[in-house]
Amino acid sequence: MTPVLIKLGYLAAAVCFIFGLKQLSHPRTAVRGNVVGSVGMLLAIVLTFLDHNIVRFEFIAAGLVVGGVAGAVLALMIRITAMPQMVALLNGFGGGASVLVAGASMIATQVVAGVPEGQLQAATVASGIIGGVTFWGSLVAFDKLQEWLLPGRPVLFRGQQPLNVLLALVVIGLGTMVVLQPADQWTYWTLVGVASILGVLLTIPIGGADMPVAIALLNSYSGLAGAATGFVLNNNVLIIAGSLVGASGIILTQIMCKAMNRSLANVLLGGIEAGAASAPKADDIYAGKVKAASAEEIAMLFDNASRVVIVPGYGLAVSQAQHAVRDLTTLLQSKGVEVEFAIHPVAGRMPGHMNVLLAEADIPYDKLKEMDEINPTFAQTDVAIVIGANDVVNPMARTDPTCAIAGMPILDVDKARTVVVIKRSLSPGFAGIPNPLFALDNTLMFFSDGKKAINDLIAAVKEAA
Quick one: pLDDT at residue 219? Predict the structure, then answer.
């Protein structure tokens, strides 16, 4: 195939990526967007095979088989609640691949053509730095979410920030040496090692509440590492694809920070825990004020209700209650009750977490209302049902300027006539602070597993009929 046709094919693949990303922005077109993006990637892979002199196709085939099997197994095994961990791993693999490919290309270039030019070395350095930070930072994010070795809370120690600055300066110095002395391959791998340490230290201060932002940022890093590797390989489609991923990750990171009223620097420095120590004690807020209710008592609220808003949170994901919620929605609608869902941008552990769960249960997309659209309507809501959400409905964000989530936009469920909160206990959310919503006069607590609670409500509503 001629170089002109290959470049045109790469252009077609890039167009597929762009349209695929555009269609992923809405649940109705997300499946089609995945297909379009996959077609673009398949086209890019085929053209790459035709564009370069592949020496040993059997190794590529072996890699495709191993990677395909591993991907299929993970896709079938990973629960939706563990999807953030899966995304973190995928980000890390992308960064690690960029490090290895850039390093191998540098070695191959020196063997075939002698000392490579400065532009190529600069791209190699960028791949090594960003890829190293991404790989190890993503592994730390995975471990924090999975809670294997590292705690979900921020890990801080004295002199942490000066050490990070020192490591960054060392990385820059090593990168300069790689560009000026490209024949020394060990300098590159030393650079990767220092960048890896920096990736760990940059991620451990980030707490569980901020992990969705960290994942979005690491996703952007993996794209930028891929784009840099595209320059190393002189592969236009990899440059375009990496740039798209990098840009979309940065945009998503900004959206997430805005949704939490936080700066990116505050997130990276683990600032959300700063106010936790001075937060009011749970006993002072809850003592003698929390009202527990049964399924039968809550079912009576629906008899005179005309509008119900359901607020999904991470507890809904953990209990896999989305199908039970759909059944409750159908039952209430059959009684003439209007039911809608209030979606907070950072509910759950990753962007779109609640949307994916509810879409899995075939809940109509037009029932899912974003925060800005649903908040003005809570005053006209008869019953708001909060399932496993905590920080995103905590009124302290509006009333206490010293708390960890001060200023964060929240769902105004406290303005509904009656609020039903379904939780296992009064335990705090990721921010680690109590929630005055649980003690309000118009709030009823239903202490139970999310799925069991919804099924009990369904049975109670049917029995009352």
Answer: 92
This prediction's pTM: 0.83
| One domain, residues 351 and 246 | no
pLDDT band at 155 (very low <50, low <70, confident <90, very high): confident
Please answer whether residues 123 and 231 qualify as being in contact, where contact means their C-beta atoms are separated by less than 8 angstroms: yes
Cα dist from 391 to 99, 150, 257, whole Å:
38, 22, 15
- CA gap 145, 169 in Å, rounded: 30
Strands 418-423 and 338-343: unpaired
| Cβ-proximal residues to 142 (8 Å cutoff; 6+ apart), any chain | 85, 88, 89, 92
Please state, rounded to an integer, the average pLDDT across all residues of the chain: 88
Contact 106, 67 (CB under 8 A): no
Whether residues 155 and 33 share a domain: the answer is no
How many other C-beta atoms are found inside a 10 Å radius of the C-beta of residue 416?
A: 24
| Domain containing residue 49 | 1-77
Check whether residue 166 and residue 300 sit in a common domain: no
Lay out the sheet containing 383-387: strands in order across: 368-370, 338-343, 307-312, 383-387, 418-423, 443-447
CB 446 within 8 A of CB 319: no
How many Cβ atoms sit within 10 Å of the Cβ of residue 274? 13
More confident residue, 260 or 331: 331
> For residue 432, is it left (φ>0), alpha (ψ between -120 and 50) or beta?
left
What distances in angstroms separate CA 90 from CA 110, 142, 232, 257, one per listed residue? 30, 10, 22, 22
Q: Give the model confidence (pLDDT) of 267-323 as tens digits.
A: 776 555 444 445 667 877 898 899 999 999 999 999 999 999 999 998 998 899 999
Pull the structure tokens for residue 95. 């960064």
Number of domain units in the chain: 3
> Among candidates 309, 328, 323, which has minimal Cα distance to 385?
309
**Domain end point (choices 48, 77, 106):** 77
Active site (annotated) includes residue 391: yes
CB 362 within 8 A of CB 325: no
Around Cβ 54, how many Cβ atoms within 10 Å?
11
User: Is 418 in contact with 384 (CB distance < 8 Å)?
Assistant: yes
How crowded is the C-beta side of 379, counted as CA atoms within 13 Å?
A: 1
- What is the C-alpha end-to-end distance of the chain, expressed in Å? 71
User: CA–CA distance from 220 to each of 60, 92, 198, 233, 241 (Å)?
Assistant: 27, 11, 17, 20, 11
Q: Are 193 and 257 in contact (CB under 8 A)?
A: no
Helices (H), 24-56: 27-51
Q: Which two tokens stand for residue 16?
A: 């597929």
Annotated catalytic residue, options 51, 210, 391, 449: 391
